[in-house]
Write a structure and sequence with these properties.
about 200 residues
């Protein structure tokens, strides 16, 4: 068992955000990340695996410059978190409906070229994922216990519906992205988890 300080943030901070609380529905794809099922039927995700995958996602993202990454969040619960992530890292984000074809159709005025995408939820953000697969770029997706993850390159298991959970996750990703790319001059980033979280 890893020690407390091996986590990217304290175990307590993870637990308070509810990042590990899944849904009552579980797919075969996600069963490897499920630690147990609570008496009320909700699945509980393995905190260690969540932490490991956030670390992997940060490492993968940090291989790309900000302009080469796209983060999508169709679901409103993630908007504040992804906008704060974009603001603090310079990474392009779509909070709201993803405009189809912007990655695949060079004729569109809105066409952009990216090398990696991060989807907040593989179901509502499926159009962005489809486009990414079509052009052959890596897809990182936040997946809850009810997500299908067969087309995802890197699954980050988490509660991808809770505002606190998403706020904490994008806060950690922003901090790690900047740290790995050598852009953090101090131990603590110039932003707090509150900047990412809805009250």
């Amino acid at each position: 068992m890893t020690t407390e300080n091996a986590f990217l943030v304290s175990q307590d901070q993870y637990l308070k955000s509810g990042i590990h609380i899944g849904t009552k529905f579980r797919t075969g794809y996600m069963s490897a990340f499920i630690y147990k099922t609570r008496p009320d039927g909700l699945s509980v995700l393995n905190l260690q695996k969540i932490d490991e995958r956030i670390r992997q996602a940060a490492n993968l993202l940090s291989q790309y410059a900000p302009q080469d990454i796209l983060v999508c969040s169709r679901r409103e619960n993630g908007w504040k978190a992804v906008k704060a992530f974009g603001k603090n890292t310079g990474i392009r984000v779509f909070a709201g409906r993803y405009p189809p074809g912007i990655l695949t159709n060079p004729k569109l005025e809105t066409f952009i070229e990216v090398k990696c995408i991060l989807a907040t939820d593989s179901w509502p953000d499926r159009n962005a994922i489809k486009d990414a697969i079509q052009i052959g770029i890596p897809v990182i997706a936040l997946c809850d216990t009810n997500n299908q993850s067969n087309e995802i390159d890197l699954v980050v298991p988490c509660n991808n519906k809770g505002k606190k959970s998403l706020g904490l996750l994008f806060y950690i990703l922003a901090k790690e992205y900047l740290r790995i790319r050598g852009l953090l001059t101090t131990e603590e980033p110039p932003f707090t988890v509150d900047d990412f979280t809805e009250e």
